[in-house]
Amino acid sequence: MPGLDATQIRRRLADARLYLCTPNRPDLAEFADAALAGGVDVVQLREKGMEARQELAALEVLAEACARHGALLAVNDRADVALAAGADVLHLGQDDLPVPLARRVVGDEVVIGRSTHDLAQASAAAVEPGVDYFCTGPCWPTPTKPGRPAPGLDLVRAVAGWDAARAADEEDGAGAGGPGPTRSGAGPDGAPGVHGPGAGGSEAGGSSTSGPGGSSTSGSGAAGPNGPGLSGSGAAGAGGAGLSGLGAAGAGGSSTSGSGGAGLSAPGGVGSGRPWFAIGGIDRHRLPEVISAGARRVVVVRAITESSDPRAAAAWLKIQLSGVPSSP
User: Fold this and answer.
1) What counts of helices (H) and strands (E) characterise the chain?
2) How many whole angstroms separate alpha carbon 226 and alpha carbon 241?
3) Whole-number Å distance between alpha carbons of 267 and 270
4) How far is residue 145 from each of residues 139, 150, 151, 284, measured CA to CA in Å?
5) Are 101 and 72 in contact (CB under 8 A)?
6) So what's the pLDDT on residue 263?
7) What torsion do the CA atoms of 20, 89, 272, 253 make, to the nearest 10 degrees?
8) DSSP secondary structure, 83-122, as one string
């Protein structure tokens, strides 16, 4: 949205719940107005292979719609296009321009986001200097990323577990009248803590930190406080049992790591409240699962772009998301 400064952009990002990626389309202006009126907070043009001039023309249409509705405009991949379009947000994939170089192009006011597809990438994005938010997924395979494996909701649960651990740390600090003992596992200089071998990836052995009300138990099939423990790959969602595998608990669940389960604990960056979004194959039928896994913000594509009523589709999604307290 034109005219916002860095602080205002980041406040709007912190409040955002619904992020839409849309291709270029003949009715782009009408479609954008409808989706934004329905409650979309951030809109990104996602059209691979466009020439810069064509992309800037489409972004101008979206910028005008964002200005009318008070939403944020995002550009995918290209820092030069983000700068030329006056975008609020630049989103970078793992193989795109490095963040420090992107910052040199767009400056400090533009929000920068990162795509992450496993715990190691999410842990890095949570503390990487210059990054303001990150996306985690895909939750399900999507046609926009053919051939990319989907880490599924286990990854969402693991990242949500960091928020639960952070909330518990904050409660401990408040109850003691000062900073409490951290459960985030941050290493030197706030780097992500790692338990056991395999620090470079998502399959490190060892136990993980539980969310409030949950216990951290190694081994397969340990019972959680609100439900039975189950073996297999997974992690606890809200009020659920911890599953062996990724081993990070969501709010109210217990975490259990089995053989080969992840040992990456909550990085310090998550403790600072960096926003994150679940992404990949999310529609109205799957959204309840994503919310149950602990996500409070989502990125969608076809859930709105393929709807006969994009305003109603966006409004329904936003209502569901607004019924869940935002991550602090």
Assistant:
1) 11, 10
2) 6
3) 6
4) 12, 10, 13, 20
5) no
6) 43
7) 20
8) HHHT-SEEEE-TTSS-HHHHHHHH-SSSEEEEEE-SHHHH
Q: What phi-psi label fits residue 147: left (phi over 0), alpha (psi between -120 and 50 degrees) or beta?
A: left
**What would the two tokens of residue 180 be?**
């409490």
Separation of alpha carbons 17 and 22, rounded Å: 16
What contacts 313, CB < 8 A, 6 or more positions away? 35, 38, 284, 303, 304, 307
Q: Which two tokens stand for residue 277?
A: 């979004």
* Tokens representing residue 87 in the block: 């975008």
Q: What is the DSSP letter of 222?
A: P
Q: Which residue in this structure is represented by tokens 């189950």?
A: 230
pLDDT < 70: residue spans in the chain: 2, 144-146, 173-272, 324-328
Closest CA to 162 of 324, 275, 243: 275
* DSSP output for 158-200: HHHHHHHHHHHHHHHHHHTTSPPPP-S---GGGPPPB-SS-TT
Closest CA relative to residue 180, chosen from 271, 315, 287: 271
Is residue 40 classed exposed, middle or buried when 0-12, 13-18 and 19+ CB atoms within 10 A define those classes?
A: buried
